[in-house]
From TrEMBL:
This is MerR family transcriptional regulator. CDD domains: HTH_TipAL-Mta. Keywords: Activator, DNA-binding, Transcription, Transcription regulation. It comes from Virgibacillus salarius. Signal peptide: none annotated. Residues 1-69 form the HTH merR-type domain. Coiled coil: none annotated. SUPFAM superfamilies: Antibiotic binding domain of TipA-like multidrug resistance regulators, Putative DNA-binding domain.
Length: 245
């Protein structure tokens, strides 16, 4: 199949397929004398694997590393995809249920506890851990994980409740000036909270804020607390770091 045919079949752009070729993620087995890329059945199977990993928020760099590994097994990968997607579906179904309940709560049809308002949000397993390892190194991530794992059940519950509370408080002031006194007070709480489980310099804190906007996965999760919260946090974290440096 030619590149345009593959793009139409899969529903992605020709430009994306060209990019995959350029970075060595998916290089067609054949190229015609005229320079047209010809994708084989093996190429399509590799593309399927790539898109399954991408759906699970793996970076292109990590996908290439996994698929090109001598130990990579396609059948095992598909079983893993299935397991992870089922888990993702369960979480999505729970969150849809939370939305439905919230709509009824807004109409005054039901009473909803604070715990019910956040059913489906799960931050106990970080889906972006690999990216964090690549950006800040294993030592920092392992230290954070060790700290979290040392918590008692009660401490973990308190940690999660504090996490949600900080995000809700930030969402309340997201329309204020990020450099305002109230915004800086609340972003300071986030900085102090992060340093409970790790060691974040002001520069790292500032870089983390930029990641919230640069990576749409972070933006999507953060903005669930309030549209535009990720951008607000980025700007508030930048102002906080600049003021103290």
């Amino acid at each position: 199949m030619k590149v345009k045919e593959v793009a139409d079949l899969v529903g992605i752009s020709v430009r994306t397929l060209h990019h995959y070729d350029e970075i060595g993620l998916l290089t067609p087995e054949q190229t015609t004398e005229s320079g047209y890329r010809i994708y084989s059945e093996n190429d399509l199977e590799r593309l399927q694997q790539i898109l399954f990993f991408k759906e699970l928020d793996f970076s292109l760099k990590k996908i290439k590393e996994i698929i090109d590994s001598p130990s990579f097994n396609q059948a095992e990968a598909l079983e893993m995809h299935r397991k992870m997607l089922l888990d993702k579906r369960r979480r999505i179904n729970t969150m849809i249920g939370t939305i439905d309940k919230t709509l009824k709560y807004k109409k005054g049809e039901i009473v909803m506890s604070n715990q019910e308002k956040f059913a489906g949000f799960d931050f106990s397993h970080n889906p972006y851990e690999q990216e964090a390892r690549e950006r800040w190194g294993d030592k920092a991530v392992n230290k954070s994980n060790a700290k979290l794992n040392s918590f008692t059940k009660a401490e973990k519950k308190e940690f999660e409740e504090t996490f949600h509370a900080i995000y809700r408080k930030l969402a309340e002031v997201r329309h204020e000036d990020p450099a305002s006194e109230i915004a800086q007070e609340r972003i300071a709480e986030w900085y102090q909270f992060l340093n409970r489980i790790g060691t974040y310099s002001l520069e790292a804190f500032k870089g983390l804020g930029q990641l919230y906007v640069d990576d749409e996965r972070f933006t999507k999760n953060i903005d669930q607390y309030g549209n535009g919260l990720a951008v607000f946090m980025r700007d508030a974290m930048t102002a906080y770091a600049d003021n103290l440096q």
